[in-house]
Each structure stands twice: as C-alpha cells, then as structure tokens.
Amino acid sequence: MDTPTSPAEPEPQLIPLDTCLFDLEAGTYSDEHLPALSDLSRLQMRQVARSWPSIPPVTRRAVIEGAIATSRTEVDLDFRRLFRVALSDLSPDIRQLAIGGLWEDDSRSLLEEMLRIAVEDPSDDVKAAAIAFLADALQVQVEEETNQDFVAAFASLVTSLADAAGVAGIVRARAIEALGVVPQNIETRALINAAWEHGDSALAVAALLAIGRSHESRWLPLVRPELKSEDPEIRFAALVALETIGTSDDVEEIAALVIDEDPDVRFAAIEALGEIGGPGAVRILRNRAKTAPEEEQAPVANALDMALTMAEPTA
Known about the structure:
Layout: H1 17-25, H2 42-51, H3 57-71, H4 80-86, H5 92-101, H6 108-120, H7 124-143, H8 148-162, H9 169-179, H10 186-197, H11 201-214, H12 220-223, H13 232-245, H14 251-255, H15 263-276, H16 279-291, H17 294-311
C-alpha cells in the first residue's frame, strides 16, 4: 500500500522587475520585491535607475534597508548594482545607507566613484562615509602594495583633509583615521600627532584609531596612559589601538577594563586580550568566563580561542 504524501509546497512566484518597479513607484513594498532587485544586469540597472526618482523617498529607504538586512542572511542575493543606483539618490541618508551596503565590493570602478563622492558630495556625512569605506577597502591593498596609484590619490586626499581649514568635523575625523591606512611617513605621523594634541576629543579618538591602523609600535608611549582616561571614548579607542600594537606588557592594564562600567569598553578590552594573546591574556579570559554576564559569554569565548591560537608556537 502506498504511503500517503502531503502535497509539495508550491515554489514562490518571483515578482518580475517591471512589476516590482510599478509597485515601488506606487509606494507598495515588501521583502518579496527584493529578489527582483538582485543580480541586476547592466540593462536592468539602467531600468532601475530610470524608475528610482519616481519611487517615494520612504519606499526607497525601505528598499535599501531591506536589501542590506537581506544580504546578511541570503548570500545568494546580490544587491551591489541596486546600491550603486542608490549612490545617486537625492537623500543623503539613503546615499549613506547605500555606501554601507557596498562593503564587499572593492572594484576599481567603485573605488573611483567613492573617491569622487568623498570630494564632491554635498553632504558631509556622506563624504565621511565614503572616506571610511575607502580606508577599509584599501587597507589590504596598501599592505600588499597593489593599486598603488589609487592608494597615492587617496593618501593625498586624506592628508589634505586632515588639517585643512573649514573642513567639517566628521570629515576631518574620518580623514585622520584613514591616515593610519596609507603608507606611513613623517607627514602622516605629524598629522596624527597634531590631531592628538588638538584638544578636541573627537580628533583625539580619530588619532588613536589611526594609530591602531598604522600597526606602528612607536606610538605605544602615547596610547598606554589613555587606558586610564576619564573619557570612555578615549579608553575604547586606546583599546582598539592596542589590539594591533599592544604587547604582553599591556595585558594587566587591559584586564582592569574587562569590568569597566562602559559596555563598549568592556567588549573592546576582551577583544584586545584575544588579539594580544599569551598566557596572561588566556588566564584573564578564563577567569572572566566564570563571571561574565550572558551577553559577554560569546565574545569572551571567541577572544579566548584567539588568545590560545596566538599562544601556540608557530612552525
């Protein structure tokens, strides 16, 4: 006798791009529209670009936010060309969101577009986001000495913005952070030091983050005392710097911040111990695992795994 079977679930019907754009222009949006906006051909990208200004702003924002959220869980969907369209949106908030969505794209054409945005966009927040994007994208290329002409152009831009008069604070801060990514020389170090000594806390934080990205241990005498700063943002940035330039000599001072009153500082201290590694860091992290609240258990475990790896002898 045959075993009864339940009817197979019907395959969901994909919304065609034409229908998707018609709905969006009418202000109708749901996550079911997103597959139609994934893996766009060049021709489809131009079609979306023509329709995009006719879509209500609140719907455009919902589409980009939905695409960003979906791309984190649905690896088969590719919204890069959708995000490229949104880089020209009239809303600076949507342009900034689109930059964040493109974090996996390091194509030369996008780098050139981001450099243009960093110079020409009317929004300081969007300029700052473009500078941060470029710094992240170029970190590996600087280390591998590839794409050197573009690296030089970016270095020239952030060097000029780091101490230029009239530059918005958020743009200047991102430029200072980016100084740690470009090749280090007397000029970049002087600009980082000037930002540190400026007296503005946001620039001081940017200088510490630049120091961390530079990987230069020469800055340790400046960074170490800031673990005891009264400003949690400074303590946090000092810990981020020590992730890359810290040594076993810093472990005990960092350990005191594992129970800091500021949660971001605590998490940064845990991560720094994992990156520095060694027996001292392993001991502290094991002790913390016994008392850490639930939200810190996974970060402590991950840091402990990293610290143990760092403690293993290399072949």
